[in-house]
TrEMBL record, chains A, B:
InterPro entries: AAA+_ATPase (IPR003593), GTPase/Isobutyryl-CoA_mutase (IPR052040), GTPase_ArgK (IPR005129), P-loop_NTPase (IPR027417). Keywords: Chaperone, GTP-binding, Hydrolase, Kinase, Nucleotide-binding, Transferase. The keyword Kinase applies. SUPFAM superfamilies: P-loop containing nucleoside triphosphate hydrolases. It comes from Amycolatopsis keratiniphila. It comes from the Bacteria. Pfam families: MeaB. One of its GO terms (molecular function) is GTPase activity. Belongs to the SIMIBI class G3E GTPase family. ArgK/MeaB subfamily. Residues 49-193 form the AAA+ ATPase domain. This is LAO/AO transport system kinase.
Length: 322, 322
């Protein structure tokens, strides 16, 4: 017999800050539990208070260490912090990797900190679908700051900028030349740049390159009046982390002052509603005649008897007829 | 007055291998031109002959150089090769970067080679939507091999494995420790591993780590009887590239022998049809009442008067009613 799921009680306990209840709700999100809509409905009235900070950057820049150092700094200010470590890169293996688990232990005994690794594998719609739900859980659970950490190459960092009020892009010296950095595509999405491992050779060059790149990137993307700061850190020793916190505060003030915060949040809600609706329709398409219809049309495409657009047309016609 | 677009003539000239016609068709794909379905219908009967090879790996492993070396080796065998360099990482800047353009010049005068950089920015559905269309163009234009090169961290390499008959994952020494490599999520998708820059310190360690990781990864993903080979190259000097070509041939033989090729292509067609249909439905959702409906619902979510699932429900109801 499945365990009875008392959503009301679970939400209530999560709002009281009970870690196991929060974890349980996040598992419902990860599993795309059928009662998730009910959960979202119960959580929504209690949301909107958390500052959502995205933290991204290419592998090897020290994201885990930086998150940990940032956590320490935010905790010192008395803020409760929830962390979502999103791993969009491993769709098959299912589960966060060792690195994420290791650093959890550092804050394991702190009740003002909640860290969760989420693999977005398998999820149709991936990050864009599951992460806002997870943020909603932590927001409703009363965390002052929700940090979303994700590997920042590819689509993931574009998704993270959509989710966050403020996006921090981490870089490190010796990550490759300027072109490679630009390829990583992280320049345009940053509200705050952090050059970590700033005690290493090449840090000055990285900051210099970054300044040049920033000047090349269309400013309007970040809003006309915000100048992306570049903060140097040595996260492993906690150096410069205070400056990161200050940059975050300044950006938040700017968001509020420019009425950019409600704009970003409306855009986020728009994406989320769209993602959920698309997800629903996609599921219906795939389910048509228990999935046979799509497979059938695919065979016709492989046999070159139908082009994929015509096949898609037929699929949609079937959906409307169903 | 817009230039008259003669699809029949364009397809005919592309099939004759006229580079400008091929380029034009690819631009139609990139622009998501309204007459794309017509183009696909005309191209489809002439497709199915090209071997589609995906090439992915984290930034800095020498993907551009490897692609170029591979091109040279395949050309030496008399094969015509089309290259799609996909840059999913830069959604805003619009356009491929310098590195891609530089290496094009090397093969610029060879009529048996066609190279195109595509930014998948902006495209809803990104890679999964546009790339199969671009592959179809090159396939119909008679290229024996279509190489899809993409930055391999995040969702992009998952998409590339779906598109390719054979996926090559490039790594290089000193890309970070084993955990980082695993995070890059490239281990599970490789049919062939290439350790490039194999003359550098740490190459043996990388190969060793890779072997260990391979043994940890669930084998069945790649098919029970295929053992992922690890090829060492120094692409900048062309070393080992013949071995890569041989590994590609062996994998292709295996695909054919095991009847895995039609299976992969059916899966690919299925994804493509699904992506096109989802794209269509998404466009309809977003367009409801000129986009006002989604914006309206998003505002209600931000105001916490509606949760996003309920909002999505209403959006879909509107779609059905429209």
């Amino acid at each position: 017999m499945p365990v009875q799921l008392d959503i009301d009680e679970l939400v209530g306990r999560a709002r009281d800050g009970v870690p196991r209840a929060i974890a349980r709700l996040l598992s419902l999100v990860e599993d795309a539990h059928p009662r998730l809509p009910e959960v979202a409905a119960k959580l929504t009235p209690h949301t909107g208070n958390a500052r959502v900070v995205g933290l991204t950057g290419p592998p090897g820049v020290g994201k885990s260490t930086s998150t940990s150092a940032l956590l320490t700094a935010l905790r010192a200010k008395g803020l409760r912090v929830g962390v979502l470590a999103i791993d969009p890169s491993s769709p098959f293996s299912g589960g966060a990797l060792l690195g994420d688990r290791i650093r959890m232990t550092e804050h394991a005994t702190d009740p003002g900190v909640f860290i969760r690794s989420m693999a977005t594998r398998g999820h149709l719609g991936g990050l864009s679908w599951a992460t806002p739900q997870a943020v909603r859980v932590l927001d409703a659970a009363g965390f002052d700051v929700v940090l979303i950490e994700t590997v920042g190459v590819g689509q993931s960092e574009v998704d993270v900028v959509k989710l966050a009020d403020t996006t921090v892009v981490l870089l490190a010296p010796g990550m490759g030349d300027g072109i490679q950095a630009a390829k990583a595509g992280v320049l345009e999405i940053a509200d705050v740049f952090v050059v970590n491992k700033a005690d290493r050779e090449g840090a000055d060059a990285t900051v210099h390159d970054l300044k040049q790149m920033i000047s090349l990137v269309r400013r309007e993307i970040r809003g006309p009046s915000w100048r992306q700061p570049i903060v140097r850190t040595v996260a492993s020793r906690g150096e410069g982390v205070e400056d990161v916190v200050q940059a975050l505060d300044e950006h938040h003030d700017w968001l509020v002052r420019r009425e950019e915060l409600p704009r970003r949040r409306a855009a986020r809600a728009r994406d989320e509603v769209e993602a959920i609706a698309v997800q629903r329709l996609r599921a219906e398409l795939v389910d048509l005649r228990s999935g046979d219809r799509l497979a059938e049309l695919a065979e016709l495409v492989v046999a070159r008897k139908l082009d994929p657009f015509a096949a898609a047309e037929e699929l949609i016609a079937d959906l409307r007829g169903s």
